[in-house]
Design a protein that fits this description.
Elements: E1 5-6, H1 17-29, H2 39-59, E2 66-69, H3 72-84, E3 91-95, H4 100-103, H5 106-111, E4 115-119, H6 128-134, E5 139-143, H7 157-171, E6 176-180, H8 192-195, E7 199-203, E8 214-218, H9 243-258, H10 260-279, E9 284-286, E10 297-302, H11 307-316, E11 319-320, H12 331-341, H13 346-350, E12 352-356, H14 363-377
Parallel strand pairs: 1-11, 3-4, 3-5, 5-6, 6-7
Antiparallel strand pairs: 2-8, 7-8, 9-10, 10-12
Helix pairs in contact: 1-9, 2-9, 6-7, 10-14
Bound molecules: pyridoxal-5'-phosphate (PLP).
């Protein structure tokens, strides 16, 4: 069987050798329940807290702000559900470009009596001034993802938070700002401290860690749990902790941050090669803006084929790319909303495909993809 060439790293990444070895070792050596009070349980608990400590140092935030979850979706949900069930309704500013893990709450918020204001991101970016003009005395929650998973745009989270904080000062009302940083961690440099957000969501499997484990950063003590049960994770995320997953995620985050600069340089180069080749191909439009975008994601559109047809043709040539966000059942529709919010025309949106690079991709692979696309489009 031919090896597939994988360009769908925004959907998930292959687990790294170090993370997999850590997972296997931990499953064998630290299998006890970290809540058990016997020796084996205490050993597991100590590893769990070691991971929290390490992640707190890597992310430069206090240990008690970090909660282990099962994925980024759960980390997002803890924040959303906590507001949803709050005794008082208010307004949430929910950009149209957010992941379904957040936009999926729109209807529920409205049903509960909240106002949900959807913000557009013209040309790919939310505008802090637009956020400012929508803030009101009802606003309780502002969302702004760090890297958009469809387009790769790096959103101006720091500027948006500044606008929110100055509004808070004027009005004396607290507004919670949440960022979904799933596509950013270990890929583009950022600091939670400088961003000054109240909470952030992360996922291990997007950075060569295992599936089924994520992380919530949250400094707002008023946030309440999504589930009921035990007192694990200070009661914010009841349920027995996935210690092997958490240890492997910690190893993956450390590895990704240690190599972030080198990987970024490499992926920038691969992205530039693709852009160069695609810009010389007739009928291809590069949708991802060159400036202020993550080089890990490149969204392009062709006139000749709808995205599902082109992705299928590329699969047949052993390339894995994506026609939308892999995590949503109605991915096509959701991607359409995101792209139209970014002012991509319906025609370009229909032909859009996402190429998401990883640090294990090579020059040969990107050249082969460009050649394959060129062949399908009738040569360059
Ligand atoms: N948020 C963003 C921006 C994503 O890209 C994804 C996955 O594609 C998720 C959340 C969901 O991540 P998980 O699979 O860990 O729930």
């Amino acid at each position: 069987m031919t090896e597939m060439v994988y360009f769908d790293n925004a959907a998930t990444t292959r687990i790294s050798r170090k993370a997999l070895d850590t997972y296997n070792m931990a499953s064998d050596a630290y299998w006890a329940n970290p809540s058990s009070l016997h020796h084996e349980g205490l050993k597991a608990k100590s590893k769990l807290e070691e991971c929290r400590k390490k992640l707190s140092l890597l992310l430069t935030v206090p240990e008690d702000t970090l909660t282990f979850t099962s994925c980024a979706t759960e980390a997002d949900s803890i924040i959303m559900e906590s507001f949803l069930w709050a005794p008082q309704c208010g307004e949430v500013l929910m950009p149209n470009i957010e992941h379904g893990a957040l936009t999926g709450f729109t209807r529920l918020f409205r049903q509960k009596g909240w106002t949900v204001t959807a913000l557009d991101a013209p040309h790919g970016f939310l505008d802090p001034e637009d956020v400012r003009s929508h803030l009101s005395e009802k606003t309780r929650l502002v969302l702004c993802m760090l890297v958009n998973n469809v387009m790769g745009t790096i959103e101006p989270v720091e500027e948006i938070v500044k606008v929110v904080r100055s509004f808070e000062q004027e009005t004396g009302r607290k507004i919670h700002v949440h960022t979904d940083a799933t596509q950013a961690l270990g890929k583009i440099p950022f600091s939670l401290v400088s961003l000054d957000v109240d909470s952030a969501a992360f996922s291990a499997h997007k950075l060569h860690g295992p599936k089924g484990v994520g992380l919530l950063y949250n400094r707002n003590k008023a946030i309440t749990a999504l589930s009921r049960g035990g007192e694990q994770e200070a009661g914010l995320r009841p349920g027995t902790e996935n210690l092997p997953g958490i240890m492997a995620m910690t190893a993956a985050v450390e590895e990704a941050l240690d190599n972030e600069e080198t990987n970024l340089e490499k992926v920038r180069h691969l992205n530039a090669l693709l852009r160069e080749r695609f810009s010389s191909l007739q009928g291809v439009t590069i949708l991802t803006p060159l400036e202020k975008s993550s080089p890990y994601i490149l969204n392009i559109s062709t006139e000749k084929y709808p995205s599902e047809v082109l992705t299928r043709m590329l699969y047949d040539k052993d390339f894995c790319v994506s026609s939308g966000s892999a995590c949503s059942n109605n991915a096509k529709q959701h991607q359409g909303t995101i792209l139209s919010s970014m002012q991509v025309s319906p025609k370009q949106s229909r032909g859009s495909i996402r190429i998401s690079l990883g640090n294990d991709n090579t020059e040969e692979e990107v050249m082969a993809l460009a050649d394959a696309l060129s062949g399908l489009l009738g040569g360059d």
